[in-house]
Design a protein that fits this description.
alpha/beta, Aminopeptidase, 7-stranded mixed sheet, two-stranded antiparallel sheet
Length: 241
């Protein structure tokens, strides 16, 4: 009886659960480009196939084909307030629904900036509700920033993501005006980044956290370019999952 050939097995897929956040309106920013950039990706799924590994020495087995990664994306608009960040971000981390969190905010004209670190204190500007950041303790002249519940964290927290590699990846997609940054600005962008990095650190750094500043629309990138950058970072995560 002839042998029956088995059908080739379908390649397995890995799953990457991604949360994107953008900010709402504040000051003279009625339509925040950070939210416009991420909102169109909400509830979308993309499949990325990582590039194959480098070939080994002669007579060694060929490397296995890379496993495709299916990225499931959710997007959430965050009000530009200290209270909203403190109420929302810890809950999102505690839900353990996500592998990756990419926070996006609007910065200065001139391109995209991928942030390496965030600050614990020094938040001395009013938020969109006209409220100040809480002080770190009950003392009248204490610094404003992260206090109770964040005592064990240092003044600066750094992402574990290779920011230079992310910048190179975005440039390879044609987004040449992209650079790394060490200063998220001591406002809500910095605040949400520190909060998210601290929460991730509390959870053994299981969740990969990153922050990107986008410029105001048109200087130089349009919202569509910013969305392409966001998707490019998701692709980078998928390739390094």
């Amino acid at each position: 009886m002839p042998a029956v050939e088995s059908a080739p097995s379908k390649p397995e897929k890995r799953t990457l659960r991604v949360l994107l956040t953008g900010f709402g309106p504040f000051r003279n920013v009625d339509k925040n480009p950070s939210w416009l950039a991420v909102s169109t990706l909400n509830n979308q799924t993309f499949t990325f196939t990582p590039p194959p590994g480098a070939p080994g020495p002669p007579n060694t087995p060929k490397p296995k084909k890379p496993t495709p990664v299916e990225a499931h994306i959710s997007a959430l608009e965050i009000p530009v307030t200290y209270d909203a960040v403190l109420k929302t971000i810890p809950e999102l981390h505690a839900s353990k629904q996500y592998d990756v969190m990419l926070h996006v905010g609007v910065g200065s004209p001139g391109g995209l900036e991928v942030e390496r670190q965030a600050h614990k204190t020094g938040y001395n500007e009013q938020d969109a509700d006209g409220k100040m950041c809480p002080r770190i303790d009950d003392q009248k002249h204490s610094k404003r920033g992260f206090g109770k519940g964040f005592e064990k964290f240092g003044e600066v927290l750094k992402t574990g993501v290779n920011v230079d590699d992310v910048v190179d990846h975005l440039k390879s997609l044609g987004l040449e005006q992209t650079k790394p940054s060490n200063d998220p600005g001591h406002y809500l962008c910095d605040f949400i980044y520190y909060c998210s990095l601290a929460c991730a650190q509390n959870d053994g750094k299981r969740v990969k956290v990153l922050f990107m500043h986008v410029p105001p629309a048109g200087v130089p990138y349009e919202v569509e370019d910013m969305t392409r950058a966001v998707k490019g970072i998701v692709e980078y995560y998928a390739n390094h999952a």
